[in-house]
Amino acid sequence: MIHHYSIPVNDTIRVSEVLARLVNGTVTCFGPYKDSYIVWFGDEQGTAIEVYPAGTEMVPGTENQPSGFVHNPGYTGYTATHAAVSVPCTRDEIFSLAREQGWRAVELPRGGFDVIEFWIENRVMIELLTPDMAGDYLTVACKYRK
Question: Which end of the chain, N or C, is less packed with Cβ atoms under 10 Å?
Fold first, then answer.
């Protein structure tokens, strides 16, 4: 189970608020790095998305020290890292929110289930699954259950 993951964005508070709308979640400041936030889904698994300023890179700590953060001014804003996230929203709500923000959103097949590619700031993609899409996803995923 994945409890949280992080994404880099230009406007950390705006993106955090949009994500909170998608999941009916709560936004709080996130202390490890300046201008960072965390979106809490409010579920029993503690699911969350950490939102860092674009260009933030996490680097290993030394010896017993925690990881650190540096800023890479040459960061392009694109990343292959993404997640599929179940949301309580309808397709119409997702597409409406994307249009409101000026962000790309498109429904696409993924082999037995569909997802909505939701392009945050038109750079960072998350795959959103409505409740019916999540059901189809689980049908496919459960074939690999051990």
Answer: C
